[in-house]
Amino acid sequence: MKKTLFISLLFLSFNSYAQDLKYVRKTLNTLTSSEFWGRGYTKNGMEKAANFIQSEFKSFGLKPMDGKDFKQSFIFSVNTFPGKMDLSINGKRLIPGNDFIIQQGSIGVKANTSLAEKDSLNFLTASSKLLVTLTDKLTWSVSQKVNDYTQILVNKSSLSEVPKNIEVDIKNTFIPDFRASNICGVVKGTEKPDSIILITAHYDHLGGMGKDTFFPGANDNGSGVSFLLSLAKYYAKNPQKYTIAFICFAGEEAGILGSKYFTENPLITLQKIRFLINVDMVGTGETGATVVNATQYPKEFALLNQVNDNGKFLVKINPRGKAANSDHYFFTEKGVPAFFLYTQGGISAYHDVFDKAATLPFTMYENLFKLFVGFNKYLMN
């Protein structure tokens, strides 16, 4: 009875604040712009995004997590493609991102030669150091190493005949000491500052392939960062009795490296984290959401569903077990209770050039915001 009364009073209080969808869309447009070049490893894209997030934290009035600096820097290796990205097959010039991608671990190559059919989808040069693979979807990623061969994935629909000849000039640059930063801020609790609710999202994406093609990364994970920043803005204006902390991680696409580094070099005592919620790909929600670690923390998952059912925010929240698929994982391994939430429905673009801000409906943004505020409220009570 007391729980039901609390939730009822909680939802009456939702009218006391307005969710700034205009801010979210403006932020998403900034994060996915060509200026930030896919928030990756060329054209200084990741650092520009880090500086933007740091500036937003400062403008809201958040404090650095360590009391000194919003940035926690670390180093890792990465294979990049900042320059030449020219490809013609059977005399037809192909467009990077739309017609083809370079496999992320490939070494650069310059050649004008014939191709031999290995099977119906794969075609090799005589040296076997250059492989062309036909595929239905072009999905890119990030590699921390360089192979001794080059693989080019070509969209089947871009060719009208079997690949026979290839002219290619692609350059890679391996960076053994790429420097990135996690951006960490806090809103100090008013009554129990040593109890922490942590909200996280990764801000890096895939960057660019050549000088003309970049991967905007709107849903993955411009949506999560925009959502996190709107929560940071709200909690800065409305401090809670617990400390509300925020981390935007780098290096997620290269292997959840930023969160791994943080858990090994924490700026806050991990045992003080009451709960962590990681958001990644939350720009949709028409068909609901899924929570990773739901089976690990059934009490909190039941609570989340109770808040959702009372507010009728999402049509359903699907439970999922433990998975090492985003930045919550290494926290869970260290004993920190954590959820990873992602929404479902809407666009299907993923790790491609079509994951653009204009395609994200954000139809469930306001309800998702209320769900988070309600869940956090309940955790603190």
From TrEMBL:
Identify one Pfam family in the record.
Peptidase_M28
Q: Which SUPFAM superfamilies match?
A: Zn-dependent exopeptidases (SSF53187)
This protein's record includes keyword Signal: yes
Q: Which residues form the signal peptide?
A: 1-18
- GO annotation terms (biological process): proteolysis
Question: What InterPro entries does the record tag this protein with?
Answer: M28_fam, Peptidase_M28
Keyword Transport in the entry? The reply is no
Record-level Gene Ontology MF annotations:
metalloexopeptidase activity
Q: Residue limits of the Peptidase M28 domain?
A: 182-369
Which UniProt keywords are listed? Signal
The protein, known as: M28 family peptidase
